[in-house]
Every structure is written in structure tokens, then in C-alpha cells.
Amino acid sequence: MPSSSEPSLDKSGKEITTVGFARFGFDSEVSLDVLRSLYLRAHYVKTVASADEAAKEADRDDASTSYLSKAIYHADTKSISYTTLSRFPPVKLLPPSQRKRILVTGGAGFVGSHLVDRLMVLGHEVTVIDNFFTGSKTTVSHWVGHPNFELVRHDVVEPFMIECDQIYHLACPASPPHYQFNAVKTIKTSFMGTLNMLGLAKRTKARFLITSTSEVYGDPEVHPQPEDYWGHVNPIGPRACYDEGKRVAETLTYGFHRQDGVDVRVARIFNTYGPRMNPFDGRVVSNFIVQALRGEDMTVYGDGKQTRSFQYIHDLIDGLIALMNSDETRPVNIGNGDEFTIGEFAELVRDIVAKVQKEDGVDVPRVNIVYKPMPTDDPQKRRPDTTRAKQVLDWQPRWTVQMGLEEMVRYYKAKMVEGSL
Ligand SMILES: O=c1ccn([C@@H]2O[C@H](COP(=O)(O)OP(=O)(O)O[C@H]3OC[C@@H](O)[C@H](O)[C@H]3O)[C@@H](O)[C@H]2O)c(=O)[nH]1
């Protein structure tokens, strides 16, 4: 199990022991250690050499492993024997009046799985629908079988019926190589998927939150980007399936709001990173960390002068939950204002990987930074104006990029040990 020798500190230097907060009558605070026990570890108990040892290990049940998977990794054959969980992570006991039935589309993805962890630990009933195109069952497998949890393989482009109180509509590939892989399917997911989920919200009177994106601002001519900026998007470029898809999804959302009175929330998410991000999804944070850990060249696209502002996953989940439970129906940017050029960011990731390796006593050569062609229509700059989130949600990011990156490096190191990276 990876361990960090130092505590995680927030932007003001205070130790982070919990994430979430009570806002708008909804308490989302949970212990960081509980969440970490779900993502910052290998998903097996320990490695064994023989079948005999494996059988003994599977029988073992003590406090330290009580809510860890009993799956065993066999180093000699590079295989895992899965077992069912002996005990689930503890969840709050909520009175029925406070317990919500929550649908999370795309709940097996990177962002979705962290939202699911939080909502489950808080004691709600969670149903995940996912087609597993970019999501993976392993991200939520620790909840499968729990009475408060249901996992359904379903593609949102088809209608789905369920009784629920809140819908977090996340389903859509989000990494540029993934969403461009099948552009028609991406825009179909944004349009048909959102239409179906809004129809469900209308029928059940559930509150509906859609995760839109900073990409609705395109290659922005206003910097930083406030919510009332209309954007600068190429409607026929390779990114259009996602940018325009999310823009039409927002249009649909406000159509249902005005015409049918659906209670809507729109989050515009800026670049986000953290554990469970697919190491091969082609985004900059996962690429850079994996390259530095493997001792490969780090690939900066273009001259590296384009900028991005990176937010850690827990800040995003705090923002999404606050928005869902607030009264704010206008779009709200959720992102971190710490802006880097991609060239600077490559150096930062390289230094952080070296620091973590040094702490773990691993001696690694310094990797090189190389330059590759710039993808078409790659936005030149991006930084959220989060004034609205601060005013209406009392939300602002707590995690420094350094702290978040260290945790993500440790997560990827655990995956390397497991052999899945
Ligand atoms: O290996 C790499 C990967 C990416 N990059 C660059 O790093 C920057 C960030 O690229 P990413 O692919 O991580 O993310 P992008 O900002 O392009 O898109 C993201 O925007 C916001 C979200 O809604 C989406 O998840 C995602 O589309 C880009 O300028 C890209 O060209 C590199 O320099 N090297």
C-alpha cells in the first residue's frame, strides 16, 4: 500500500484530514483516510507465492483488512484471484427523510467513481449507469453487492427509467483522444444522453445536474473565463463533437428548465486530475506522470506556451455536491485558478515524480522533455473565473497542484507494482 511520509496541506498550509462540508442542508464531509482507503491502494490484499498461502490469506479477517478486497495477486503467474468483499466501507446511517436516491450516469468513470464514493460513504442510495467505454468496473467494484448500491451496464443514448431524487449526468468520454475516437458517438452521447436524462428528470421531478466543460469556451478570447462569456468554438473542427456536444447539452438543459420547469444545475468543469484517471487516456497529467515514472521522454505538444489550470478531484466533487444542493440554476465554473504553461507544468511533474521516488528510496534518471506537434484547435489559454462559485456556493479549491500531484504519483506507483501500468 503506498504511503506518504508527509501530511497533505491545503493552500493555506493547514493539514487536510477531511473533504467536503455542510452547505445548503446537505453535509458532504467525509474523512480523507476513508476515501484514500478506496483509491490509494492496490485492489488486492497482498501478494502470495503459493496456492496454499492464497487460501490462508483469503480466510484472514482482521480490522486492518476488514473492508479491503480479499482478492489475491499471484506474482508468479501475474494473475489475481477475486473473491467477494468480506465487509464494505462504513456508510452513514441516514434517516429516510435525508437519504436520497441518486442516479450517477458515467459513475464508473474517473470523476463519477469519486462522486459515488462520497455519496455512498455519506449514506445515500446510489445507482450507477455506465457503458464502460471509458469507465471501468474496477473503479466502483468495492461497492458491488452493497444494499445501497446498484451498477447497471447501460448506454445513455437509450432511455432509462428509475425512480430517483437527484441525477448527476456525467456520462461522456472526456479525454480529447477518446472523444475524437468516434466523434459521431460523442455528440450523440451528449445530445441523446442528455435528452434522455432530462426526460427522466421531468418524469420523476428529480433535480438534474449536468457536467459541462470549460471546452464550451473553445479557444477563448477572454481570460480568465467567466460564465457569461459565450465562447469561441470551431463548430466543424476535431474538438467540435465534444465542445458543441456539451453546448447543445446545455441548451437542452435550459430548454427543459424553461419549458417544463425541470430543476437544473450546470457545472462547467475545468481540467481535473487525480487517482483513477486512466493512465493511458492521453491527457496531459496522466501522460506526464506515466512518462516520468517509466523514465520516458515527456511529450509537450507545440511550444508548450499554451496554458491550463489544474484542479484536484476532491475539490471538484466538493463543488459538484455544493452546486447540486444549492439554488443556483445558472452555469457555474468549477476549477482551480492556478495557471501553468504546459512547459512549466512538465517541469513541475518531473520534479514531483523525482521527489516521491526519492522519498521511496528509488534512484531514477532525470527524464527529457521533448516537443511534438500541436493538436488542431488546441486552446491557447484556459483559467476559470470562479467568482460565481465563491459567491453562490461558498466554494473555492483547497488543494495545491503539488499536493494533488504527489497523491496521484503514489496512485500510479501502486498501479505499476500491480503490473497494470
Ligand atoms: O502528452 C501531452 C498531452 C497533452 N498536452 C497538451 O496539454 C494541454 C492539456 O491537454 P489535455 O488533453 O490534458 O486537456 P485539454 O485541456 O486539451 O482538454 C480537456 O479540457 C477540459 C475537459 O473538459 C476535458 O476533460 C478535456 O477535453 C493541451 O494543450 C495539450 O496539447 C501535451 O503537451 N502533452
Provide a descriptive summary of the structure in words.
Belongs to the NAD(P)-dependent epimerase/dehydratase family. UDP-glucuronic acid decarboxylase subfamily. It is found in: Cytoplasm; Golgi apparatus, Golgi stack membrane. It comes from Phlebiopsis gigantea (strain 11061_1 CR5-6) (White-rot fungus). With 421 residues, the chain is an alpha/beta fold. It has eleven helices and 20 strands. The protein has helices spanning 32-39, 51-59, 110-121, 176-181, 183-204, 240-260, 284-294, 313-325, 342-359, 387-393, 401-418, and strands at residues 18-19, 22-23, 26-27, 30-31, 47-48, 72-74, 79-81, 101-105, 125-130, 149-153, 166-169, 207-213, 264-269, 272-273, 298-301, 307-309, 311-312, 331-334, 339-341, 369-372. The strands form seven sheets. It has a seven-stranded parallel beta sheet, sandwiched between helices. Strand 8 (101-105), helix 3 (110-121) and strand 9 (125-130) form a beta-alpha-beta unit. The mean pLDDT is 92. Bound molecules: uridine-5'-diphosphate-xylopyranose (UDX). Uridine-5'-diphosphate-xylopyranose (UDX) binds at residues 174-176, 213-215, 269, 271, 283-284, 287, 299-301, 306, 308, 342, 375, 378.
